[in-house]
Amino acid sequence: MKYHNIKQAKFLARPNRFVAKVQVDGREETVHVKNTGRCRELLLPGVKVILSEADNPNRKTRYDLIAVEKAGLGLVNIDSQAPNKIVQEWLAGQDFDFVKPEYKYGESRIDFYMERQGQKYLLEVKGCTLELNGVGYFPDAPTERGVKHIHELIKARQEGFCCGLAFVIQMPKVKEVQANIETHSAFGEALEEAKAAGVKIIFLGCTVGMDCLTIDKSRISADF
């Protein structure tokens, strides 16, 4: 996926989870942060960030903050909308007969429903931006919604669906994601239950450019 009208800036502060203060073109500007997660280990005063100019000229904020430079790692894409977009592109090349985003199942909307030769599939997508010692961790904040989605996948697997949970690793080098049990132990427990039930856990490592995010074929853990 591609971004347009890119600018480099310097991160100054994050007054709330929706906006940040940055220095761009020698002036301070308020920008929209495309991630409501904490991102505390990324959004540090003085770090380089990447902005994308919004298409809507009437918007209150002119730019979206889409990526952050992390020392020793490189650019980390923090756009929370990017994982689903890039997975939809990936699924288009996986020989499915039918792909439907935002599929209503149980009490949830699962990110993707697919069919192949009569087999029904469900795939939930999570973006990972938290890294420690070369390993990705999810979530970076408690996510009851994430736990609920995993339980829905377990139920669907028991009903005959082929189910998967895909972690889109929005940073270079990292090849796997583990549950961040210190932040949300219930997510870790649900993830282990899912594995035991036969839900496939898929890692999709990405190459991050200033104006793009691309799945790195050498860092795909499994086909689906």
UniProtKB/TrEMBL annotation:
<dbReference type="InterPro" id="IPR040452">
    <property type="entry name" value="SfsA_C"/>
</dbReference>
<dbReference type="Pfam" id="PF17746">
    <property type="entry name" value="SfsA_N"/>
</dbReference>
<dbReference type="InterPro" id="IPR041465">
    <property type="entry name" value="SfsA_N"/>
</dbReference>
<feature type="domain" description="SfsA N-terminal OB">
    <location>
        <begin position="12"/>
        <end position="77"/>
    </location>
</feature>
<dbReference type="InterPro" id="IPR005224">
    <property type="entry name" value="SfsA"/>
</dbReference>
<comment type="similarity">
    <text>Belongs to the SfsA family.</text>
</comment>
<protein>
    <recommendedName>
        <fullName>Sugar fermentation stimulation protein homolog</fullName>
    </recommendedName>
</protein>
<keyword id="KW-0614">Plasmid</keyword>
<dbReference type="GO" id="GO:0003677">
    <property type="term" value="F:DNA binding"/>
</dbReference>
<feature type="domain" description="Sugar fermentation stimulation protein C-terminal">
    <location>
        <begin position="81"/>
        <end position="208"/>
    </location>
</feature>
<dbReference type="Pfam" id="PF03749">
    <property type="entry name" value="SfsA"/>
</dbReference>
